[in-house]
Amino acid sequence: SDEEIIDEHDVTSWSQALSVPVRQLLRSGPALLFAPQCKRGVFHVDPRHYSVEVLPGGADTPSEQGEGRLCVTNLFLRGAPAIRYVTDVVAAIDHRPCPCGAPGVLLRPLP
What we know:
This protein is mostly beta strands. Helices cover 10% and strands 36% of the residues. It contains 1 helix and 7 strands. A 5-stranded antiparallel beta sheet has the order 3-7-6-5-4, with no helix packed on it. Strand 1 and strand 2 (33-36) form a beta hairpin. It is globular, with a radius of gyration of 14 Å. The two termini are 16 Å apart.
């Protein structure tokens, strides 16, 4: 569903029941964000299409580091862009490369 992360216990149960890995897609309809999950459990955001920041600790000013509510700017929609759309997703941003090898900015959802 939109701007929600499924509980890891449920994902593990589905993976076992289906005998295949189950991955999630982090989605925000208003920001047109799609971020796939890798086998390491983190979500990859393509920096060619999105700029992501977080609002740490309820602050009003976005930050590119740390953790807080995810703030998304889509960089591809020119006619009606979503600029600094604040989602309901609480996450940590990591700009280091993912060990899985997939490119992008890493998002780690937080409870």
